[in-house]
Amino acid sequence: MKKIIKFGEDVEGYNIPVLNEREIRAAAGILFLATFLSLMFILFKGNFVPIKYVIIIFLTDFIIRVFINPKFSPTLILARLIVRNQTPEYVGAAQKKFAWIIGVVLAGTMFIFFIIVNAYSPITGIICLICLIFLFFESAFGICLGCKFYPLFFKDKVQYCPGEVCDVKNKQDIQKTSKSQIFILLICIALVFLSVDLFNEKFSEKPYDLFGINNSAQTK
User: Fold this and answer.
1) pLDDT one-digit tens code per residue, 4-42
2) Which domain does 65 fall in, by range?
3) H-assigned helices in 87-177
4) In-domain check, residue 4
5) Between the CA of residue 125 and those of 129, 131, 192, 212, what are the distances in Å?
6) Whole-prediction pTM value?
7) Burial of 132 by CB count in 10 Å (0-12 exposed, 13-18 middle, 19+ buried)?
8) How far apart are the C-alpha atoms of 196 and 213, rounded to whole Å?
9) Which DSSP category does 163 fall into?
């Protein structure tokens, strides 16, 4: 029973239970894509059915992760299959569990509103946005935003963070950002805003069918 209900894996060389960050990032990407697509159905079609399924899957998945064992989480199993040929990157399990408890709370709140009450509100919109941000940062940047709150509630030192960000170390030259790079970034941002101001009216025009394919189909 202890082998079934457990959080984290015992890996030689690590003094605490750990998880594979590569699997976690892949699973976050899967959930981000599913959540994002379901929100697109709401925005463009007014269809709330996909988000209800996603919420049920999301909540069930996180309950399994937190209260049973992450190795039995469906999205983490799928993620493991996807990244099985990549070398594992081990991270501390404790801070991940705390972050996933936040996920259970958010998904549980959405379950109450969308499944039980069958209603939406600014609260559900804000929670969806928070979930998307958390999932995006995890999958795209390897930054666990939920883990950032762990030190506020626990005095234990956070160990084995992704990219070793928990450890104080000097940046290598390839990690440093020069003033010229910052200047280029600011110029690009300024060009985006300038383009919106100058070309928004032009860009708002609907593109025409270059080869008239749709028109030909309609006449038939």
Assistant:
1) 889 999 999 999 999 999 999 999 999 999 999 999 999
2) 18-173
3) 93-110, 122-136, 150-153
4) no
5) 6, 10, 27, 40
6) 0.85
7) middle
8) 30
9) G
Residue the block writes with tokens 């594979």: 20
Task: Write down the residue that tokens 């259970």 correspond to.
Answer: 104
Q: At residue 87, what are phi and psi to the nearest 5 degrees?
A: -65, 130
* Model confidence pLDDT, tens digit, residues 103-146: 999 999 999 999 999 999 999 999 999 999 999 999 999 999 99
Contact 71, 5 (CB under 8 A): no
141 located within any domain: yes
Does 79 map to a domain? yes
Closest CA to 142 of 39, 34, 20, 6: 20
Angstrom CA distances, 53 to 16, 27, 41, 133, 157, stand at 35, 17, 13, 20, 38
Confirm whether 70 is domain-assigned: yes
Based on the structure, what is the number of domains in the chain?
1
Residue type, 122: P
